[in-house]
Amino acid sequence: MPSSFHVESADGYERLMGRWSRKLAPMLIDFAGLADGDRVLDVGCGTGSLAFTLAQTSGLREIAAIDYSPVFVEAAKRANTDPRISIQQADACAMPFEDDRFDRAMSLLMLHFVPEAGKAVAEMARVVRPGGVVAAAVWDHYGGMSNMRMLWDTAVMLDGDALPLRRRYCFQPMMRPGEMKQTFIAQGLSDVEETSLLVRMDYLSFDDYWQPIAAGEGPLGRYVAGLEPDKKKAVDAAIRAAYEAGEPDGPRSFASVAWACRGRVA
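Above: the chain sequence. Below: its structure as tokens.
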């Protein structure tokens, strides 16, 4: 099943989100837990933030990673130097693994881009052995991503066409409180727990913040890239003003919160 995430380039994604997902990866791993000898599946590996963080644990037996995007798969394969890691293109809703293959399946910043996220959770549960763990994290776009809400809230003041896009962004699958927990329970997982994880997104300047978006990366970038020149110029200027907030351009730090959920396979 296709992902709704818009990919221009692996390098662009790294600037937009990869550098922050690397901060989030250790927190999801701590929440999910690990044990020596584990076989772990990374579902929606992107450029490898979670898989390569998992590889820092020497006791793991195997780390398998999949992503729907061939752009991400190619980039992750190029970056991989660990023989325990295997990376392939695959659909999270129809994974090419036998039942009970893994001890844990984790998904970092992927489920909210799957239109039928419950199917992906069911597949994660299918490929994990009884007693194993399924865990996932997604950004809280509505209440926990002030840096991106700043963009959308500014854009809708200038462009009425941004209103439905903002709604879609804020309420993607798994983003409402308790939604991921209920989905895990509905797919038969037990001992389900939901929490939130916080990281800081630190930018050196407005260009550091804006460049990957202006280049068309991700859902936000796709919207900006599609604007007519005059409207794009106005949106650019307004968002710069929001970023600077009356002070000279320079470093800014934003709190960013992700929902995280884990459950055990019966």
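The longest strand covers residues 190-203.
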